[in-house]
Give the backbone structure.
Amino acid sequence: MEKTLEVAKTLTTKLANLSPKVKNSLLEKMSKDILKNKEEILKANEKDLKEAEKNSLPEALVERLKLDEDRILDMANSILEIAKLNEPLGRVLEGWVNSDGLRIEKVSIPIGVIGIIYESRPNVTADSAALCIKSGNIAILKGGKEAKHSNSIIAKTLQDSIKKFDLNPNIITLLEDREDVAKLIKQDKFVDLIIPRGGAKLIEYITKNSTVPVVKHDKGLCHIFIDKSANFNEAVKIVKNAKCQRPGVCNALETLLIHEEIAKDILPMVYEELKKEGCEFFGCENAQKIVKISSANEDSFHTEYLSKTLNIKIVKDVNEAIYHIQKYGSGHSDSILTYDLTNAELFLNSVDSSVVYLNASTRFTDGGVFGFGAEIGISTNKLHARGPMGINDLCTYKYKIYGSGQIRE
Amino acid sequence: MEKTLEVAKTLTTKLANLSPKVKNSLLEKMSKDILKNKEEILKANEKDLKEAEKNSLPEALVERLKLDEDRILDMANSILEIAKLNEPLGRVLEGWVNSDGLRIEKVSIPIGVIGIIYESRPNVTADSAALCIKSGNIAILKGGKEAKHSNSIIAKTLQDSIKKFDLNPNIITLLEDREDVAKLIKQDKFVDLIIPRGGAKLIEYITKNSTVPVVKHDKGLCHIFIDKSANFNEAVKIVKNAKCQRPGVCNALETLLIHEEIAKDILPMVYEELKKEGCEFFGCENAQKIVKISSANEDSFHTEYLSKTLNIKIVKDVNEAIYHIQKYGSGHSDSILTYDLTNAELFLNSVDSSVVYLNASTRFTDGGVFGFGAEIGISTNKLHARGPMGINDLCTYKYKIYGSGQIRE
């Protein structure tokens, strides 16, 4: 492991200084080679699916794991889209001349060596490798063991493309052993960043044990607060969209907060509409007085269901809503539905989640929707990157200072 | 400890939303109160100095610890300067309308609760508190035990100023026990960032054990490479400035690299000039053939002397210089002296230290010099902030999204 990473580290300078044209041609080649190797990739995926069946993997995971012709085409297209993104390196983020006459430029550069730890979806292997190459970073990939055959052939395909460009194929490395995670997160000498994507346990384990800085893609416990002055029809549509359009994702709604003065009117509307979609509900005492739903407890409000289940709580006002979100939220995405300017501003300024919304569904927290193109994940960190992480968030910066003999007095 | 931090966390929203006018008046009050309490502060410092004498603290540390009227005036002025900085919160860093018609704003906000761990200098207590208040962050301060009486009275003075503004004085908290550090760095539930400033052992301990993200102020092992085409007179002045102007600081020079083709001419000039300043030298074999100096070994090149000691190594070309810096450097500040455009670009692009210089002394790596005003430290991290950390680096951001009923299709 240490040997592998030491080699990886030595490749950073060359990759960082590759011309955008060469990088983009390489990505185009990778995209083509993925399509060319379609049959082999499907065969490997078949092996993973058989083992999944043998191990009785949950259906949701099997669905994520499964590849078909369309998904391989998507994978290839996604690499092409990444090739088309604006060059992320060498952007002058700021520049000025100081009082000594030094010309100071703050310039975007790669982070260096990035370890990405993920589960199930084999397309993450291709996406992560492509995003890292585009941003000049060495990618150390560790996929889930359930996808090992698929990930292995995808990584091999990409490495073969790299070889044809006379580059060292180890600019991307796929780790195969489960024990590799424990080792990887201790290699702060060679690894600059760990990005874990996965279940709560994985994230917690890595946060507690990593000596390498971590940008985590943690849970999304998202809230919507329907204020007194909300537009009811708009509110019902937004809540339905946030809860039901794709309940298994991190930007889906988990807890609905409703202003007490309108609860009697709006809650039955929400309830009817979501029941049609097959939703289950857990509510506070006051909510239970209005609609027939199960009783929510302290645990309910801490739960990221990732299914068609919704918590409902009646609150006194926007302040109680903010308090609830600060206490139970995960700092991901939270929305207020209101046409009261004071409450809108109070909510947007006080809730310190990575994305706060006014009159919109939480489902928009997404790199594509933001216009970033492919995303490496959605950060729930406070530092370095928050919310959807696009290609620019895989960069750091350095100061380049141009002098003409200056010394400090 | 947990109780203290839980209280601190609840204060974040109020502090984040304080008006700039109130914050600046508070800082002005703090500055005045520091001056008003001058006698008490000097008395407390006297106690620390007596204990320092009893414990035979090294002279350099005593020098840092010592306060006098001038230093207290500097401390008060520094708080005033921080008050005068541009408001760091609420800056719209980017803003656009996406294809759904959502208005997206990326806005600067406070990080939250920041733990700052430092040594000796009591003025860091006042500076850190003021920088945190200005940037809307709760400050958890842990100074060195050698400065405990000074830090305690300074913190109490500042807390008294805060009380007069009807604010909770716990927006700054001074931890007093040595064991507090070990506890603090495990409180990821309440603390958002740890900034350690101090010796290598402290930094290493915190990096290895913290579950809270760390932005470290690590060692500065800075290099200058004199290329073949350097201007000799300029080079001698710059090397002398970088090594001798203030050898005890992190941006001072530790290792000088010289192109082999000019070593015979420039090395004696450097040697004579620095010897006059009282410098000692360790050199590679080839350097020892030119001037009478001690022999450098592998350890020498890893050493941050923080004194008038200099390593000298003759290298074949700019590539060997870059290789040496990547191997032995600490990613702080490195400079090339050259008038060859190709070599200048190669060096500036390949050395990935936080600050890279062309024809200037490494001593310019400093928040004041950069025009940032007061600095909280110099980051040797790859993520979040690199190089001099000004007030804006104590901020993170969130996305505020303004909709009008949008749902995701």
